[in-house]
Amino acid sequence: MTDLSQIVKAYDVRGVVPDQWDETLAELFGAAFVEVTGADAIVIGHDMRPSSPGLSHAFGRGAAARGADVTEIGLCSTDELYYASGALGLPGAMFTASHNPAQYNGIKMCRAGAAPVGQDTGLADIRALVERWTAEGAPEPAAAPGTVTRRDVLKDYAAHLRSLVDLTGIRPLKVVVDAGNGMGGHTVPTVFEGLPLELDALYFELDGSFPHHEANPLDPKNIVDLQARVREVGADLGLAFDGDADRCFVVDENGDPVSPSAITALVAARELAKHPGGTVIHNCITSWSVPEVVKEHGGTPVRTRVGHSFIKQEMARTGAIFGGEHSAHYYFREFWNADTGMLAALHVLAALGGQPGPLSQLVDRYDRYAASGEINSTVDDQAGRLAAIKAAYESRDGITLDDLDGLTVTAPDWWFNVRPSNTEPLLRLNVEARDAATVARVRDDALAIIRG
């Protein structure tokens, strides 16, 4: 029997196919999903991985056997699946392993309206059912099995995104897009169609073996080709999407990366212009510039833990209009509180194309501090190292500590956060300060304790 603890994570199912899971298990997951959500209809989509069509069809068979009508939207990005869940009012399942290597696959599940399914919101119950059925035999089929139909929602998804951003007055722009052989190659041409954009397409061929580079733009080595191409063709900006195209990373006209915190601040300012006085969510390791910009534009910033389940929970609780993370996940109230990098990309295009200056100049007002980026350290005792950091800093003058997520240490001119990884023996350090020299000093002081 497969050990489901190895593949059922905090927010999704993910593992190696067929070693850790296969179509037989996918069928049981489909049946359990219907059982736990009580759905009489669901929607399913999948990415370009070789194993994705078979797994998604199997999930659909399991769901239909339990009496649910299944709408298959086929090849799609994760945010396109969220669109279908929201627009159709149906629970959904997306087959993808995002930026993981080719042998992996997974399932991201949501309730109707793209509400997330995680350990505390149904995933643990789904796992328990699959384990029981694996041990005791699959359940009897429903008296009346559901139907399976196909539906293409790509144009509807694109039209919905375009309805949320005013792109009518933008000047012509040259944009390089690196899809990383992922689902951006499928969605970008339709979403950008008819806009005054000269599109330079990198790696748009759908290929789940990722022949050019990993589809994870947060790793600097994976945007090298994009940076070079932007400089080579004199583009106004570059966009990089991850494998399932729900995250978007931006580089300016010089090929320099634009911090996701700066993008969060830029989009927040635009959303606050549409929704004055709104609340904006940001996680505890986004830049100081994010809450500053939100307040300057009359909004209320709310700080939360890292991770989409916490962001979405706070968005629902506060009625927030927008949320952003350092990992280039961007969440919109007008998109059922779900994350969509494509909508963030349209905001960047609208902001850049609505004024004459270059992107580097535009984002300067939102990128106010120096930062270290995330630095990982392997440690034997995460709790012990965190306690050592707390002991080292808590008695210093002018220092405040909080443990919202890991440990955040704040001084008048700098802050750093140290968080334990949930899956590896790592501590993750992020430092920000008013200048690079201070970042280096604070970083080295903190690392000496973490690695001491």
TrEMBL record:
A Pfam match: PGM_PMM_I
Instruction: Give the record's keywords alphabetically.
Output: Isomerase, Magnesium, Metal-binding, Phosphoprotein
In what residue span(s) does the Alpha-D-phosphohexomutase C-terminal domain sit? Answer: 374-446
Which residues are in the Alpha-D-phosphohexomutase alpha/beta/alpha domain?
6-133, 156-255, 263-369
**What range does the record give for the signal peptide?**
none
Cofactors needed by this protein, per the record, are: Mg(2+)
Entry keyword annotation includes Transmembrane: no
Q: Does the keyword Hydrolase apply?
A: no
* Lineage top rank: taxon: Bacteria
Q: Which family does it belong to?
A: Belongs to the phosphohexose mutase family.
From the Swiss-Prot or TrEMBL record, give the protein name.
Answer: Phosphomannomutase/phosphoglucomutase
